[in-house]
Amino acid sequence: MALLNFRRKEVTPETGPSPEMEAFLKGYSIEVMPRTAEKIEDFRELLPAGTRVYIAHIDGTPIEDMVATAARLAREGFTVMPHFPARIIKDRATLADWIARYQAEADVRQALLLGGGVSKPHGAFHCSMQLLETGLFDGFERLHVAGHPEGNRDIDPDGSDRNVMEALRWKQEFSERTDAQMAIVTQFCFEARPVIDWVNRLQAEGIDIPVHIGVAGPAKLQTLIKFAIACGVGPSLKVLQKRAMDVTKLLLPYEPTEFVAELAAHKAAHPDFGIESVHFFPLGGIKTNATWAIEHGGAATRPAAQS
What we know:
The protein has eleven helices and eight strands. It is α/β, with parallel strands linked by helices. It has a single domain, classed as TIM Barrel. The chain has an eight-stranded parallel beta barrel with strand order 1-2-3-4-5-6-7-8, surrounded by four helices. Strand 6, helix 7 and strand 7 (about 210-215) form a beta-alpha-beta unit. Helix 3 (about 65-75) runs parallel beside helix 4, helix 7 (about 190-205) runs parallel beside helix 10 and helix 8 (about 220-230) packs antiparallel against helix 9 (about 235-245). The chain is globular, with a radius of gyration of 19 Å.
């Protein structure tokens, strides 16, 4: 596959975004942290009504800040989905307390369950499956779990995806015995073909949980490389590394236009393809990401089927 062309595709009022991009970006979600959310005066000026907003729980962030951010976003009319990182949750009582706070103050009924970004668990949990097994999320409308199209060295140190796929098969079985809607929300990538191959493999393995593909929003190249290395992005990192070697492009911002357009075209050509939605990591800022999304067709409100 040819490497991505990172030049900005101009979207003019005359041409507008393609129908494929509009359909693919419809109902996208985005991620914030309490400290980044504080910088936004009113999310209603940036995001479509009803947008699902994930709240990333970084180790060390007080639960009070997380709940306050959830309550603020809920008041502004957004669907709130906080992270529950297993390795930073001390015990079952702590998990129950967090859930109770979210539900009391923000009526949270959706959650992203993941292992978390710390190497050593703080307490009783080390993976999202243990959180699901507590039964404390019974009654939630949506339960999302993490996915890694390029593998995860923390889970599979040998570079394979054996443990990752075993976990996804467990979550597939769980999805069949729960009333909650489930989705796999992935790490961000920069190359479409490996993503397409991974999603097709999931379907071949009998894993039909819908995929919400992670997309890095517009950002400076240096910022993206830093986050990509920290988050363990795999082979598609070479796309950024090649760009970094071109001095004519080094200072130009990255935009995910070509990556998203290729996936959108594939989805349009293959309607049963397993990607259901786009999830943005606004690494270059929420306003910048929201503006890009609007310009490229992501201004529509969330369809009822994904509420």
